[in-house]
């Protein structure tokens, strides 16, 4: 077997795999996959566009939603070329450097999305538990600072992981379990002890996503305590309804991500096709469902999107006159 070092060989480092054992059905599988990619791209683009052009949506809650849509767009675009390349053209070979770059973006945007969900949880906590301080805390400058911290956090934790892999030697021509590069999948084919890298990778993920998830859960415990102290049932329902979208977004993001990570690291006997399905759910479910959830739940966004579709991109006074509120 040949040792491939990223600086000494020109042969392909890894072979991407879409759905192991279902290669003959790739053409048919590509139809729903393409539809999901189109929904993710169009849905998040519309959400972002509506928030940009509608002045009444220039509020902290919608700023964070625009961050979420931007991250979902970037995460979708980062895997689109390789996924469709494997399904449509059977282009499975990918060089080490290209794989490393894609892995950086996949994990980086995942960390970004987790951080944005934390910021959205804090936004809901302040809006419900401390409404009088909400406008004081969430100024434009503070929101900009939160965005910069989120980006810095992603670079600090992702870049060292990529640099560490850059000098590692891998087995040449090994098949990955997914149509994109994923750290737990790549690290299995190093010549060094994969358990060390796996442990470090799992520790990093547990530290980042675990901390984020605990913060979100703690925020909702405080929110629930505040809501239950409200006497009027209608006010309780209105307060809880503002959190429904965020709870759905948290669920569709963390459940597939944690399932995929533990399947790779702890359940090595799991069939590869199951890992592949989990990976596609992890990458496509949040970008597809988030714009649908927020469009259905947010009346202003829903109406503005309908105006965009009706006038085919001509957003005039009818869109500007909409007011932002949650159903």
From TrEMBL:
Keywords of the record: Cell membrane, G-protein coupled receptor, Membrane, Olfaction, Receptor, Sensory transduction, Transducer, Transmembrane, Transmembrane helix
Location in the cell: Cell membrane; Membrane
Major subcellular site: membrane
GO cellular component: plasma membrane
Xref: PROSITE patterns: G_PROTEIN_RECEP_F1_1, G_PROTEIN_RECEP_F1_2
CDD domains hit by this protein: 7tmA_OR51-like
The keyword Transcription appears for this protein: no
GO molecular function: G protein-coupled receptor activity; olfactory receptor activity
InterPro entries membership: GPCR_Rhodpsn, GPCR_Rhodpsn_7TM, Olfact_rcpt, OR51/52/56-like
Keyword Cell membrane among UniProt keywords: yes
Transmembrane segments: 25-51, 63-89, 101-122, 134-156, 204-227, 239-257, 277-296
Pfam families: 7tm_4
Role of this protein: Putative odorant or sperm cell receptor.
The name this protein goes by in its record: Olfactory receptor
Encoding gene (name): LOC122914121
């Amino acid at each position: 077997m040949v040792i491939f070092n990223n600086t000494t060989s020109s042969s392909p480092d890894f072979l991407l795999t879409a759905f192991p054992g279902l290669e003959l059905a790739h053409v048919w599988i590509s139809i729903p996959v393409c539809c999901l990619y189109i929904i993710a791209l169009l849905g998040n683009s519309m959400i972002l566009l509506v928030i940009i052009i509608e002045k009444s949506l220039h509020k902290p809650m919608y700023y964070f939603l625009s961050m979420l849509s931007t991250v979902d767009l970037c995460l979708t675009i980062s895997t689109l070329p390789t996924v469709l390349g494997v399904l449509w053209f059977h282009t499975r070979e990918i060089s080490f450097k290209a794989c490393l770059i894609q892995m950086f973006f996949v994990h980086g945007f995942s960390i970004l999305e987790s951080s944005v969900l934390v910021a959205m949880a804090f936004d809901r906590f302040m809006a419900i538990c401390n409404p009088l301080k909400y406008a004081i805390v969430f100024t434009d400058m503070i929101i900009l600072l939160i965005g910069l911290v989120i980006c810095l956090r992603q670079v600090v934790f992702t870049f060292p992981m990529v640099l560490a892999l850059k000098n590692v030697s891998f087995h040449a021509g090994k098949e990955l379990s997914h149509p994109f590069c994923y750290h737990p999948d790549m690290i299995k084919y190093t010549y060094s002890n994969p358990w060390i890298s796996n442990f470090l990778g799992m520790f990093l993920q547990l530290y980042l996503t675990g901390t984020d998830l605990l913060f979100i859960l703690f925020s909702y415990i405080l929110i629930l305590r505040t809501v239950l102290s409200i006497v009027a049932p209608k006010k309780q329902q209105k307060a809880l309804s503002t959190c429904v979208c965020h709870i759905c977004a948290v669920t569709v993001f963390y459940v597939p991500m944690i399932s995929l990570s533990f399947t790779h690291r702890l359940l090595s006997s799991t069939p590869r096709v199951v890992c592949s399905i989990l990976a596609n759910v992890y990458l496509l479910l949040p970008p597809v469902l988030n714009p649908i959830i927020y469009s259905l739940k947010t009346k202003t966004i829903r109406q503005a999107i309908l105006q965009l579709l009706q006038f085919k991109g001509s957003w005039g006074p009818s869109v500007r006159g909409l007011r932002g509120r949650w159903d």
